UniProtKB/TrEMBL annotation:
Record domain SWIM-type: where: 102-130
Pfam family, one: SWIM
Domain of life, source organism: Bacteria
Organism: Streptomyces phaeolivaceus
Name the record gives this protein: SWIM-type domain-containing protein
Gene Ontology MF term list: zinc ion binding
Length: 383
């Protein structure tokens, strides 16, 4: 309001404008870059259309202002609390940016017949907007050309850039997976691996309270990590690139107990039956078993035809009843016996049995021979 008061010599109009504002004569205010508008009720029945214009800041001025805000954490904290710190106004002024309007910047406009500059209606609008700025400093930012979201987005960008500049350069190196793959191509001579032993050393400290972890949980995870490391050293890379979901299934397949199994189901958001089915798939086929259980694909037709021929010949010896093999993508289904063989991407056949609910469950380990896989499922099905 200092800018308004310094821009006029007519204290009477300012006084009446302040009274209008306090009496609620200013209607809904519309704020846009460089201007604020509102209908102001005067002595006549129809309100007047009042507006106040002021220049928006230039891009270089905005850069200076944002740098000024970013330089002090107190400025950012105050703005987050919807407060306009007086120090920010002073810092901006010292940096050459007039955040608060100067007396020469205000340009009032009104549809009333009063030739005052400003008239009491425009003055009322100025008092009303000043009160609004007291509760929401971003009204002033919007008048100067940029809204709340844009201001905070640019402040975050400056903070990120500052952190990246201050952070030490990342050390040069090779990702662990790539380093292991390179080592696996030409492994050095290593001594024989010792027999794995159970982890018996207690953790030196209990897990932090409130984490939901127990010492027994962490010790079990340590034992899992040790076993995986031993398999990697032996050249088994099957579970090197598991997703978090697949790793949960891997842990469940190691029989961690009902409590762990329940937590794994909860944390993966999977239905218990589906999770149990994938756990069995892992036990019979590892990561590939999960892929076979979840993802059908279109294999080489000649492979499917050869397998079907072999199975037809085997079934002719296994039963006198007529059989019908139905082919769909990588699956051969013995429709009236609840048996299905699925060809995996590893060229092995995975046997499945159908339960009473019509769902297919992994039945036995995979085999490269479809007849052997059929025999495994056939014997389990009581045929």
């Amino acid at each position: 309001m200092t800018a308004l008061e310094d821009s006029t010599l007519d204290s009477g109009r300012l006084s009446r404008g302040r009274t209008y504002a306090r009496q609620g004569m200013v209607g809904a205010v519309t704020i846009a870059p460089g201007q604020v508008k509102a209908a102001v009720q005067g002595s006549r029945p129809r309100p007047y259309r009042s507006a106040v214009h002021l220049p928006v800041l230039t891009d270089p001025q905005w850069d200076t202002l944002l740098d000024t805000i970013a330089a002090r954490a107190g400025h950012r904290a105050a703005l987050l609390d919807n407060e306009m710190p007086a120090e920010l106004v002073d810092d901006a002024r010292h940096a050459g940016v007039p955040l608060l309007p100067l007396p020469t910047e205000l340009d009032p406009e009104c549809s009333c017949p009063d030739w005052g500059y400003p008239c009491k209606h425009a003055a009322a609008l100025c008092y009303a907007i000043a009160a609004t700025i007291d509760t929401d400093p971003f009204v002033l930012f919007a008048l100067r050309g940029r809204g709340r979201e844009e201001v905070f987005a640019q402040l975050r960008a400056r903070r990120t850039a500052a952190l990246e500049t201050a952070a030490p350069p990342a050390p040069a190196g090779t990702p662990a997976a790539a380093a292991y793959a390179r080592w696996a191509e030409e492994p050095p001579e290593l001594p024989e691996l010792p027999e794995p032993t159970a982890h018996t050393t207690a953790l030196p400290l209990a897990p932090p309270p409130g984490t939901g972890l127990a010492a027994a949980d962490l010790e079990r995870l340590m034992a899992h990590a040790t076993a995986r490391a031993a398999r990697l050293l032996a050249g088994d890379t099957a579970d090197l690139h598991l997703t978090q979901y697949q790793d949960a299934v891997r842990i469940a397949a190691s029989n961690p107990g009902p409590e762990w199994f329940h937590h794994l189901i909860q944390n993966t958001g999977t239905k218990p039956t589906a999770f149990a089915r994938l756990t069995r798939a892992w036990r019979h086929g590892g990561p590939t078993g999960i892929t076979v259980a979840e993802q059908p694909y279109a294999p080489d037709p000649t492979v499917m035809k050869a397998a079907r021929t072999a199975l037809d010949a085997a079934l002719a010896e296994m039963t006198d009843s007529p059989t019908h093999l139905r082919t769909w993508r990588n699956r051969l289904t013995l429709t009236h016996h609840g048996i299905q063989l699925r060809l995996g991407p590893d060229a092995r056949w995975y046997p499945f049995l159908q339960n009473d609910d019509g769902e297919w469950w992994p039945a036995a380990p995979a085999d490269s021979d479809p007849v052997t896989a059929l025999t495994s499922a056939w014997s389990q099905n009581g045929e």
